[in-house]
Write a structure and sequence with these properties.
This protein is an alpha/beta fold and 235 residues long. It folds into 2 domains: 8-90, Rossmann fold (3-Layer(aba) Sandwich), CATH 3.40.50.1980; 127-234, Rossmann fold (3-Layer(aba) Sandwich). It is built from 8 helices and 11 strands. The protein has helices at 13-23, 53-58, 73-81, 94-109, 114-122, 151-157, 213-217, 223-233; strands at 8-10, 27-30, 43-44, 63-67, 86-89, 132-135, 137-139, 144-145, 161-163, 185-189, 208-211. A 5-stranded parallel β-sheet has the order 3-2-1-4-5, sandwiched between helices. Strands 9-6-10-11 form a 4-stranded parallel β-sheet. The chain is globular. The chain starts with 7 loop residues before the first strand and ends with a helix. 34% of the residues are buried. It comes from Kribbella pittospori. Belongs to the bacterial solute-binding protein 8 family. This is Cobalamin-binding protein.
């Protein structure tokens, strides 16, 4: 990366929000899915899985911010092939996400914003209440759920929700709703699949709770309120 960053393209919604919270003026491009902040007016470069590489290059960014899971290697390599610096994050736990954000933001904006310090404080204390076992679907047709080594799974464990599929050999295994391990509840986020009270809970015998996908899966300023929001939605 150049020593001074003045132009950023972000192809990860949570990272767009992370930079825009204090330095929105640096962002010159973002995906169609970058919905926070709502008033962000920048060039849209399509989606996380199909970014417009030519358009991104035309924006002459100093760096493109990406994620190893959300973005495709072929697109990141294409950007690098055009001489563009690409910063790739890959956290699988809450602690890793906070450390990753600190490294990225320190390099781009030059310091650690107050919201990140606050998020560390929010997640510094362990859960001391009861624990419940859950299935956490992320897709329907086919049914898929959180499995091993996921950021969202670690976040839920920190508020007393243990993923019954965490020992799966896959990060996002397919499953049969009629052949699940014993569990207490089903956690249904509204993204990436838009589960809702009318779409999802009817399939499961156990109680289902619909939760905010942004607070469950995004790592950024949403971490400030995610613990309270999700704990309330899962009561």
């Amino acid at each position: 990366m150049p020593s001074e960053v003045l132009r950023v393209v972000s192809i990860v919604p949570s990272l767009t929000e992370s930079i825009a919270a204090t330095h929105a003026h640096l962002i010159v491009g973002a995906t169609d899915w970058c919905t926070h902040p709502a008033d962000l007016e920048v060039t849209r470069v399509r989606g996380t899985k199909n970014p417009d590489v030519e358009l991104i290059a035309a924006l002459t960014p100093d760096v493109v911010i990406a994620n190893a899971e959300e973005n495709r290697v072929v697109d990141l390599d294409a950007l690098r092939g055009r001489g563009i610096a690409v910063w790739v994050t890959a956290p699988t736990t809450v602690d890793e996400s906070l450390d990753s954000l600190e490294r990225m933001l320190s390099a781009i904006i030059g310091d650690v914003p107050d919201w990140l310090t606050g998020a560390r404080a929010v997640w510094s204390s362990p859960h001391d209440g009861m624990r419940r076992r859950a299935v956490i679907p992320i897709w329907r047709r086919p049914w898929m759920a959180l499995g091993r080594h996921t950021f969202a799974g670690d976040l839920l464990a920190r508020i007393g929700i243990d993923n019954v599929l965490r020992d799966s050999g896959e990060r996002y295994p397919r499953f049969d709703p009629d052949a699940l391990p014993d569990h207490d509840l089903v956690v249904l986020p509204d993204e990436p699949y838009a589960f809702s009270p009318e779409d999802g809970p009817e399939v499961f015998a156990r109680p289902a709770r619909c939760v905010s996908g942004r607070h469950l899966t995004w790592y950024g300023p949403s971490l400030l309120e995610a613990r309270e929001v999700l704990s309330g939605q899962l009561e």
